[in-house]
Amino acid sequence: MAVVDDPLIGQVLDGRFEILGPLGRGGMGTVYRAKQRSIDREIALKLIDRRFEGDPTAVKRFLREAKLASQLSHPNIVSVVDFGQTADGRLYIAMELLHGRTLHEELTKHGALPRARVVRYATQIIDALETAHAHSIVHRDLKLENVMLLDAPGDLLKLLDFGLARSFTDPDARATEAGQLAGTPRYLAPEVIEGAEPAPAQDIYALGVMLVELATTRSPFDAPTLEGLFMNKAAGTMQLAGLDPELQPIVKRMLAVSPGARPTHAQIRAALGRLDPQASSGGPPAIGITTDPTLPALASEAFAPPVVDTPIELEREWAHEKAHKQATATLAKPPRRSKAWIFVAIGLVVAGLVTAGVIVQMNAKTKEVVTRDLGGTVGIQIRANPRALIMMDGHKVGWTPLTIHVKKSSSQLKLDAIINGQTRSKLVVPDQDQDVAFTATE
Predict the structure, then answer these.
(1) 57 lies in some domain
(2) DSSP secondary-structure letter at 26?
(3) Are residues 330 and 394 in the same domain?
């Protein structure tokens, strides 16, 4: 990272940390290489930008990261040395200084990893997650970029960046505002998109995505639009071409649409151990496996993340889903037009506050539906057990329970309900108000 007349270089923060130079920059601040003067060791020092110091949400988020990460002590989790606030108001987190590269950088340079390394890495990550979850902490932003492979023997990994982490037992630990959803799209579990509270199963899902990427250089979920990506996740439509057949059973369980169907830490560890007992035991690397970056690539295919790959914070107009209240999706005609319009797409609004992130606002975009006009509108009340994502004539409408209003017509409409990854379909004629119900067993 180039130095551009940074006035902090050379200063001593809080009388304890001498700032030596920048290491990287994120959406909320800068990470510096610094020296802890009391014991003469180098550390990584994360400072929040001045422009966020007056923002209560940003400050709460920063302090939450420090508090949660400082509770964790594990060889596969970055250690927090200290955190606090200087006399002039600068917030900081002091962490161990790591030397290495992220798993994203590793895949970009070397391509797909052999199964032994995938198992070794997955075992270390699941061990780190088990420790975090035992402390009631959900990482919420587990991805290749947030795991570092150290420049040391033994393929040692460190889990980084608890900036979006949440305690799932503390109702007051909420720096993400109601109606917002933080994370990186391709790693988000379906229930997170729906508005579920943080839970360990969401990190398990993200790790499942990572396993596919490590083994194949491709994401199991890919789409040109955010809406398409979310629909694939809700339907459980995944792409596992090229994934080792012996890895597929545990990966499919980790990527289950229902969080209750995902395996526990112990079950994942046992499954990985059966695939490669040595690689999952913490022993020496398997013969022929190396992390030396000077050697030829391990595979010819370079890692290329999918089109939709930006860390985001989603502003949802469907906060009612979180409270499990009835939603209403209105499909009304514009003035003096004889056609119905469906609000189905996602409009992007940039306003970032998450690290390197943007805000995505769920806006209205219309889609024309041709019907035979009988005059007036009708309401179709839709229910499903369990809850389902509803599509109408191929376009997303919303989550049940909901009521849609369409022009009264003699033309059939096709309603699809995606329940636990399965699609149930019904044809309805919107010539009168009516109720439509879907079940998983029909």
Answers:
(1) yes
(2) -
(3) yes
Asked if residue 187 belongs to a domain, the reply is yes
Q: What is the pLDDT of residue 256?
A: 96
Strands 41-48 vs 29-36: parallel, antiparallel or unpaired: antiparallel
Q: Where is the domain boundary, 309, 330, 354?
A: 309
Cα separations in angstroms, 28 against 91, 158, 303, 398: 11, 22, 27, 33
Nearest partner of 114 among 158, 159, 144, 155, judged by Cα:
155
- Whole domain around residue 433: which residue ranges? 315-439
7 backbone dihedrals φ, ψ, rounded to 5°: -70, -15
For 31-45, 86-100, 111-125, 354-368, which range has the lowest pLDDT when averaged over its residues? 354-368
Identify whether residues 362 and 232 lie together within a single domain: no
- The chain-wide mean pLDDT, for the chain, equals 76
Task: Indicate whether this model's pTM tops 0.70.
Answer: no
Question: With bands split at pLDDT 50, 70 and 90, how would you rate the model's confidence at 280?
Answer: low
Q: So which residues are the catalytic ones? A: 141
Q: Say how many CA atoms lie within 13 Å of 20 toward its Cβ.
A: 13
User: Region 178-193: what's the mean pLDDT?
Assistant: 80
